[in-house]
Design goal:
seven-stranded mixed sheet; 9 helices
Amino acid sequence: MDNSKQSFRLSCPMPEFDFDVITMGHGSGGLLTHKFLESGVFNLFDNEFLQKKHDGAFLNLKGPVAFSSDSFVVSPIFFPGGNIGDLAVNGTVNDLAMCGAIPEYLSLSFLLEEGLKMEEFWEILLTIKNASDKAGVKIVTGDTKVVERGKGDKIFINTNGIGHIHSKANIDPSRVKKGDIIILSGLMALHGLTIMSLREGLEFESDLKSDTRALNGITNTLLDKFGDSIHLFRDPTRGGVATVLNEISVFSNLGIEIDEESLPLSPEVNGACEMLGLDPLYIANEGLFLSFVDPSVASEYLTLLKSINGAEKAAIIAEVKDAHTGQVLIKNSIGGRRVVQMLPGDQLPRIC
């Protein structure tokens, strides 16, 4: 654990809850619920919106906004590099960022299973607070429900997000065109392989860590500089890079050609995928995004992206073509090509 996270936890000691675990009473709406929310949620996430303690939040929105909703059911709920808490915040923040928006407000709803340890729940709350502060968003409303033991999996989280569209953003799948250069912002497949290694008890030579992070700071910087030359952002979460590229290829009725040699992979991920027979193109990521940019700015765009903390391994990985429309092809080092199809099933369920 880095020093900043440790300092944050020390500054937010766990309150004195009435029970060591979540009980059905915590979802009753009565006194136990009231005390639980007061000490565990309202005090931690205190802001001018939550202080009203209303059924919703009053927001003064002017101009175009983006709205997104997501639910998180990852198992296990704690993993190297994060937990379900920052995954929930970062996931919705990133969905807004992919729309060219500046995330501002989040709702936060919990579905808790009876028996969840209060210590674990508090750790998740602290992580949510830290992640939302880093992303510059406010938790403005939410909900908590409790289900009987055995009818959940410790904790599920739903988040909804709202953000204003960046003044220079013109992000739309319909803007993808022939010649667009496709840039991936970092190393592939870290999150999915991290979750798999925990579930299966696999040990690799180097410890894998999830890449979960908020991307809005990076996308804002790129939009400030390149604006209309950015045609599309997408984050390759479930289904990975291959799924996103297939979706865009079908939607635009254009072809996409991936350069296999350019795909950014760590040696650990490459080795693990070879050992397990997995294709990293289909493995989930939680801190990466794809950019479809005009070829005239691609080189300068990549240079700026690689100068930003967290995107040092960014690479140009593909180009949009007017051949093989509706298909994604991958070119290997000797010039051979094969079709990269949409994943028919799920390599690893419940990863986010």
